[in-house]
């Protein structure tokens, strides 16, 4: 690949990441959320209660970022945390009633953002985009192995043994690592989560 093509590709990916994140932030703000918190709510709504380390793995975020996000969402009453039955050092995270209601609103917003992002594209192109983008992510992912989309969907009662940081160990609050979620363009709110694109 020559430089002109490489530059065009890299710039397009960079700008899409920045603009998509900024647009998501503007849509989430009326809900009192920052980018990253919405995918945490959606993951819990989809998978049910999860050990915090498994949630970190599923989201593809570093454990400290997920810890900060869960603390803030717990403070606003949208999630609750309790000790894991199998390991008192670990925390099980689950949605509260208000969190489930908020996740429903986020789902609607998420659909609107996706439709806005692919507006004007042929339906076939829009349908193919997730596979293409996931393939690009796999090409630059230095933290394999993992499942597609960075998600594992491991029940909260199950011990994680197949993750990149698991090494046969049981669940722990800070024992998982996932993939990065792209650059941040609004670092004033990210509380040190720049490396994985999660707002806290």
UniProtKB/TrEMBL annotation:
Regions of compositional bias (Acidic residues) in chain numbering: 186-200
SUPFAM superfamilies: Winged helix' DNA-binding domain
Annotated stretches, region: Disordered: 140-200
Cross-referenced Pfam families: MarR (PF01047)
Any one of the GO BP annotations: response to stress
PROSITE patterns attached to this UniProt entry: HTH_MARR_2
Molecular function terms from GO: DNA-binding transcription factor activity
The HTH marR-type domain, residue ranges: 6-138
Name of the featured protein: HTH marR-type domain-containing protein
Organism: Planobispora rosea
